[in-house]
Design goal:
Elements: H1 27-30, H2 38-56, H3 59-68
This protein binds zinc ion (ZN).
Length: 69
């Protein structure tokens, strides 16, 4: 049980990590927890994939080079 008085950042609890809006307490919104909507969930996913592609992006070049030999 968190005690409300000792948590200064409690305001942020239940807020969407993408748009920082408070996630509505509806079944629909809770489906995408901790995001407020499907859109924000996908934005997070895209960011994640984006980071992965950025790393992977450097590999094919090397691979192609080795394949060339
Ligand atoms: Zn959001």
């Amino acid at each position: 049980m968190p005690s409300p008085s000792s948590q200064p950042s409690e305001q942020n609890q239940g807020a969407c990590p993408i748009c920082e809006r408070t996630v509505p307490d509806t079944a629909e919104a809770q489906k995408y927890h901790p995001f407020c909507s499907r859109r924000c969930q996908q934005v997070d996913l895209m960011r994640w994939i984006d980071g992965r592609y950025a790393i992977v992006d450097e590999l094919p070049d090397e691979d192609e080079f080795a394949f060339d030999e």
